[in-house]
Fold this sequence. Notes:
A: alpha/beta; 2 domains; nine-stranded mixed beta sheet; 21% strand; B: MutS, DNA mismatch repair protein, domain I; Dna Ligase, domain 1; six-stranded antiparallel beta barrel; four-stranded antiparallel beta sheet; 14 helices
Amino acid sequence: xxxxxxxxxxxxxxxxxxxxxxxxxxxxxxxxxxxxxxxxxxxxxxxxxxxxxxxxxxxxxxxxxxxxxxxxxxxxxxxxxxxxxxxxxxxxxxxxxxxxxxxxxxxxxxxxxxxxxxxxxxxxxxxxxxxxxxxxxxxxxxxxxxxxxxxxxxxxxxxxxxxxxxxxxxxxxxxxxxxxxxxxxxxxxxxxxxxxxxxxxxxxxxxxxxxxxxxxxxxxxxxxxxxxxxxxxxxxxxxxxxxxxxxxxxxxxxxxxxxxxxxxxxxxxxxxxxxxxxxxxxxxxxxxxxxx
Amino acid sequence: xxxxxxxxxxxxxxxxxxxxxxxxxxxxxxxxxxxxxxxxxxxxxxxxxxxxxxxxxxxxxxxxxxxxxxxxxxxxxxxxxxxxxxxxxxxxxxxxxxxxxxxxxxxxxxxxxxxxxxxxxxxxxxxxxxxxxxxxxxxxxxxxxxxxxxxxxxxxxxxxxxxxxxxxxxxxxxxxxxxxxxxxxxxxxxxxxxxxxxxxxxxxxxxxxxxxxxxxxxxxxxxxxxxxxxxxxxxxxxxxxxxxxxxxxxxxxxxxxxxxxxxxxxxxxxxxxxxxxxxxxxxxxxxxxxxxxxxxxxxxxxxxxxxxxxxxxxxxxxxxxxxxxxxxxxxxxxxxxxxxxxxxxxxxxxxxxxxxxxxxxxxxxxxxxxxxxxxxxxxxxxxxxxxxxxxxxxxxxxxxxxxxxxxxxxxxxxxxxxxxxxxxxxxxxxxxxxxxxxxxxxxxxxxxxxxxxxxxxxxxxxxxxxxxxxxxxxxxxxxxxxxxxxxxxxxxxxxxxxxxxxxxxxx
Lengths: 292, 507
């Protein structure tokens, strides 16, 4: 309450003199934000993989307690976006934690129901999943807030209408996620292609598209066989210390069920040293080449 | 019990008619029509000839059944054991209940007066067994027998009643009349063997029921709850906060009652009796037995909020609130405070660690109460190769799927999609490759060009389960230029070649 009265005072002063008091106003807002930010900073970040370029772009990983939005790059990428959201929820949750998947009915008619065998093959135990079907987007957001606030498990939401999802709604979700202490991932299925265009309180926003897999080579004129799924991820927004300004580059990553984390589909640099060969092997190789 | 067809009774006699064996016949009559000598079952033409001013309306069986159900639910304000009894009667077991209403006569008067206010004429009979009550309600001038009546006096009391008071069919009554047996006394004084030989055993069974020589149980529509508490008010409660305050008090009472018996409630029913006779039932369920009033009240509030969205009419208010635990489970008393004390003193009490934190079930309960039990589900994997049957959605209230269920799929392979359409959608194929796969296909008006594919995987339907033999499906995984991956299948149609369907999506 004290902050709010201060803020009101500041606003009154600003009306008197606009230019002088903007720093004051910033300070007041920073004070309000401080509590949540401190909690977020304490919790730290979750690395999405080992030596992942995406982690560097996010500033060390995904905030553990924040709200993360996922926007499909095009209407056809809904399945990829929700699977990527599931992968993030898996990484945010403790091993064996329950995952609440809250979706709007329309999302099901558009992209289908979550399918147990497929989730199992993706490395996720369907027994840990609680599915919540809400009739409308607002009901879904309401249920998602309830789940996030209770801190019962990781909350994964999927909504198709963006109309009800505004600054107020996203801020409520963010605060609920901070209070509950588990992460909250929201897939905005209807916002495909409009990723950078709208404002929200979320700390992170990623644009996800399905990327071409590495197909096995065609044999005898038959078609190639599709390989494991890959995602093309762009960081549209990343708040917090250490986060780079969002580069336009997209990261091609894959989810590795055996490691339980994301891996770079095209590792940029070869590993400097390996655990499977002795340290000096590179030098030895050099000598060998010289003597040849 | 005779129902008035319209709330505002006209001055003319009124009857409902129904088509029976090709002719219009009277089905239900109001009191005025009954007084004119009309009977149900009489032909409409005969009735019109006798009384040209008779108003008729076509009988609406559905509406009558709905009204009957509503009345039966309403009857539970007097006793938890209310049973349907023929098309025009209801049997209430008021054993041990009447004193709450100031005696049996006062109870009967209360029932009649409250039904009259709803526009329903009723007669009440109270007796030591259901058969006596049935006969008294329909044929007696003095319909209430004193509670401590001796069974041996019953044959004498009913000697002058017509045989129809035995609740026998009209045909049997006519047969008896033809034999000169019109009164119950004519039957009870005769030897039993010849009567059984001529009219069947049913007649004497009914006689035994009436005289209390055989037990005749009623089958209540609603099972009696394990625990029940209620509050009655002189005036109806209309405000929601007042309603919730009293529900909270009821919940505390119920919890005290259940804790004394070491039980917790798995499901609760809150019955709200409105002053004008409407009854609202609120059912909430919990995944774990509750024995604290807080969670109960929270679930009821969720449910009430949901009713409010759909228009929850309080009308003149609710005058009886009843909270029942319809499903209970044994529960150890909460020893949280004790464990905390022990912890302070350095002792450790090892609590059995539940697989999931209690907040999970609390969230599941709240969301189930708000959205409906079948909207909060868990996936149970099934041992079936049919894609649609491989996983089942079951209400999360019923608990987590058992550990160690079927695992028929290899791990870390991408053979099954993560999303499955509820119903396969047809796909328009454009150019077929030699393998039988389309080079291009159109789905939801978007054209996809296939660059990689795997298949076919033939899946036969469970012909031993479904009566109609299904078609074999050839499933393909296909990837298009944009990297989107689909699960398509081909089905041979009799005489129409193959048709293609979209069934699921890979990430």
